[in-house]
Specification:
This protein is α/β, with parallel strands linked by helices and 257 residues long. It is built from 7 helices and 7 strands, in the order αβαβαβαβαβαβαβ. It has one domain: NAD(P)-binding Rossmann-like Domain (Rossmann fold, 3-Layer(aba) Sandwich), CATH 3.40.50. The chain has a 7-stranded parallel beta sheet with strand order 3-2-1-4-5-6-7, with helices on both faces.
Length: 257
């Protein structure tokens, strides 16, 4: 039975990082489904996003855009209260927030390039934001209803698959995210036996995150956000409570820790 077949009513979906890249593509694709009741689209500047505004024009109140910084716990607390007051029960929570080389974050090639500011900035977006989002939205996931939580990880976060080194903070932040999601899956299983928590690798996708590093990527291995979103939803659809706490690639293959 697929994720969608387990639902007894159209899904309530929340996507964090919905204003661009894979998050935007996921938002668009999910809004196209008749079995999705509503999508809550979160981003730091969601209300100023032209693509989200266009989607809102087409889908009306089925799309709710909220300005939320997932690294700010005060904003996350307010988000949780707002959704609880609206009596939202989440079926699908997706987090596509992440950074590789932006601001203080760096794709370090050597130990000499590491610094505390870069490490902190990378971990803040890649590791802390997704798990804090889950912490604050936990009340909307408790119960007996089908729910899936998924965050974008990366194959380079696999310790077992690391043969090239480099990208110290990015690799480590994704490995830490994987561990946090694994632990969360165990706790959430006790709070909702129909829950599933997944770490997902979208492949190299043509987004702002990967753009500085695309020169040596073969054309057939560089995905559009729409293709990546389609693949990730196909993977997600096939996973249930039995697979909670696992790590999957865009092509449906498991990734070693």
């Amino acid at each position: 039975m697929t994720f969608w077949q387990r639902l007894s009513a159209p899904a309530e979906v929340l996507i964090c990082g919905a204003s661009r890249g894979i998050g935007l593509a996921l938002t668009e694709r999910l809004l196209a489904r008749d079995d999705v009741a509503r999508v809550w689209a979160l981003a730091r500047h969601a209300s100023q996003s032209a693509p989200l505004d266009d989607l809102a024009g087409r889908h009306g109140e089925r799309l709710q855009c909220l300005d939320v910084d997932a690294c700010d716990e005060r904003e996350l607390h307010s988000l949780s209260r707002h959704l609880q007051n609206a009596e939202v029960r989440l079926n699908l929570l997706l987090c596509s927030v992440g950074t590789l080389q932006e601001g203080a974050s760096r794709a370090e090639k050597s130990l000499a390039q590491l610094d505390l500011a870069g490490l902190q900035a990378t971990f803040e977006r890649n590791t802390f934001a997704p798990i804090l989002l889950l912490k604050h939205l936990l009340p909307l996931l408790r119960g007996q209803h089908p729910c899936t939580v998924a965050a974008l990880s990366a194959r380079v976060g696999s310790i077992g698959d690391n043969r090239l080194g480099g990208w110290y903070s990015y690799r480590a932040s994704k490995a830490a995210l994987n561990q946090l999601l694994r632990s969360a899956s165990i706790e959430l299983r006790r709070l909702n036996p129909q829950s599933c928590v997944l770490a997902l690798h979208p492949g190299t996708t043509d987004t702002e995150l990967s753009r500085p590093f695309q020169a040596n990527v073969p054309a057939d291995q560089l995905f559009t956000p729409a293709f990546a979103a389609e693949c990730l939803l196909a993977v997600l659809e096939g996973q249930g409570p039995e697979q909670s706490g696992s790590f999957w690639a865009w092509d449906g293959q498991p990734i070693p820790w």
